Hints:
3 helices, elongated
Amino acid sequence: MDNPPFHFAQQPKSAGSNRVTREMVRTRTDELARRDGREPTEVTHRDYAQAKEALTGESEWERQEARMVLTV
Length: 72
């Protein structure tokens, strides 16, 4: 039976801290790997980037751009 992925980003704000933890990213990364037919031990950088973006709402490109602006 296929279980739908749990989306941390859809939790109500009152459910606790808005801080995204490493554990939350890891769980979502594992879910993405399983969805693509891979074991959680076979996660890819793409899985990680997608999980991080889904949970934070910010892409890797946006994070890198923000770092560049801060260093200028």
